[in-house]
Amino acid sequence: MSTMTRPLIDCSLRAAFAAASPGFAAVCHRLGYQAGALGMRCEQTEGLQTANGFSFDLRTPFTKTVHTTLHGWGEGDSRPVSEMLLQAASGLMSVHGRATGGARPLGVDYVSTLASVLALQGAIACAVGQLRGGRFERCDISLYAAALLAVGQYLAGATAPEDTEHLLPGRLCADEQPPFVSADGVRFELEALEAEPWLRFWSAAGVAREAAGAGWRSFQLRYAKAIAHQPTSLLAAVAALPYARLCELAGESGIALCAVRTLTERARDPDAVLLLAQGPWAFSFTDQAGGERLATRSGNLPLSGLTVVESCRRIQGPLAGHLLASLGAKVIRVEPPGGDSLRGMPPMAEGRSARFDALNRLKTVIEIDLKSFAGQAQLKELVRDADVFLHNWAPGKATEFGLAKGDLLQVQPALIYAYAGSWGSDSDAPSLPGTDFMAQAWTGVASRIAAASGTRGGTLFTALDVLGGAVAAQGITAALFGRFVANAGGSVYTSLAGAASLLCTDVLEAAISGGDVSPSVAGCGVFATADGLLAVHYGCGRSRTLLCTVLGLPLTADLDELVPQLAQALLAKRTEDWLALFEDAGVPAARVVEDLSCLPVNALASRSITIGAYAQVNSPWSFT
């Protein structure tokens, strides 16, 4: 096995890191961190300063320089940008608000982190395209395009023609959603993958079967709808028992509980330190020659001509495959006989699930019974002509099927074997189901979001599944570049825990070094207008001065005085009227998109959306 674990060693990322505007500061930090973890040198230069974005150059010993620009709202749009405004204008704040009592920010740099992953992936894909004979020297992407990608499944559900989802923030009480709270005050997430264990647990806790069944119907759809309203009898039952007893009942019933941990607690885990050091990916390459497969290319996208075989369910893995397909790869999706059951999950569009289609519409589907010897042989034949194999099977399944890394690299020595998993490493993995909301609770992400949102726990928006899918696709793209460097096949392992680490990199670094990990006071918020909601920056400096001048509010008021005055003043006009005034004055503000079905007709969002059977989010990248 090769000793190379950082596939972009001897490469560099050049940017005006020190001159990044406030709206791009988090992107800049995450880019620098990822570049270093991939083996690159980060070089400061003043020649790449951009007025309304952030630009960087990827330099490798084997290709021409790749120039990448991250725009804010989009190319040519000079309006101020920030994490909060992006979450507001994309509908992300609305999806989060479905279960938190109203539209509100997540309280973490989610869009900035996701955009940094996509931007770096786009640049590396250009380098891979050049290695294969293409002329990909420029990549453009926007923060807003990344934000829309994050809500793509929810947008599909809101615009599907059958059983259309009309789910608005603030319609449900936050206290009637997970996480649950025990008698001794422990906030915890619960995971049950089947109905019977769920019913056994609640029966043991003293809940009637009918009430438990009503809770299950809502609970099982939380990944799709970002809501999980629970009957009061369930909430009361766990509130009457100590957490230790609830854990005993969970073990006896076959479900899992996880207390909502803080990032300080997470920072003490050995694998947290490892993930910070290596980044959210783990690479390895073989000693067996095989990298020559990169020599051919066809098509006008950087990964055109490459083949990916994907065997994944739900969100994380399928999104990774979708992103690779968006970069030009041919993605062959392996499904069980009869097809993936989620294909028939409402809401529907032209006979298929709109939400499922949003992640899988660019793929070729083949049905294989992987539990049979014939099916396993069939998959090996597919892999023989492939460049990448991607799966997110449960731990141990690859070995059980005879389709582990060693098995497939024997068939195809040039293969990149990719696993989109749950936890950072097998040795440090908790004995918990590796699902989004359990991962949020375990990694400290839920606690961080709760502190910022004023709620008990994280978000029912599938934050780690989406970010984890992007990280997996980025890792695969970097591994394809590494395949050329090592002239060999290899593997890349990514996880939800790795995505969580990347999302909270700055806080985890502070926690490990003993620094301050309390959420900062951002000086921004969501306010009602005469006809909707508006996200506004009011904290300090120029934006506060401009805002107070437009509204006629005293410049000397402290924040405790200013916020109620601001709330009262903004009720006087419609959102569009305020936006026009604020844009003229240079005040950072954005409409909070509460109804996702409005996005396709939104002038800003429509550039990134294609109207078909439902509203489809376009590829976030453009290449020249």
Describe the structure.
- There is one protein chain.
- With 624 residues, the protein is of the alpha/beta class.
- It folds into 3 domains: 399 residues, 3-Layer(aba) Sandwich (Rossmann fold); 80 residues; 100 residues, formyl-coa transferase, domain 3 (2-Layer Sandwich).
- The protein is 41% helix and 17% strand.
- It has 26 helices and 23 strands.
- The strands form 6 sheets. A 7-stranded mixed sheet has the order 9-17-16-15-10-11-14, with helices on both faces.
- Strand 12 and strand 13 form a beta hairpin.
- Helix 2 crosses helix 5, helix 6 crosses helix 15 and helix 7 crosses helix 11.
- It is globular and about 70 Å long.
- The two termini are 37 Å apart.
Please indicate the count of domains. Answer: 3
H/I helix tally: 26
Mean pLDDT: 94
Stretches with pLDDT under 50, minimum 5 residues: none
In one word, what is the shape?
globular
> Any idea what the radius of gyration is?
24 Å
Strand order of the largest sheet: 9-17-16-15-10-11-14
- Just give the CATH class of the largest domain: Alpha Beta
Structural class: alpha/beta
Summarize the model shown:
By secondary structure, this protein is an alpha/beta fold. It contains 26 helices and 23 strands. Helix 2 crosses helix 5, helix 4 (110-131) packs parallel to helix 21 (463-486) and helix 14 (316-326) packs across helix 21 (463-486).
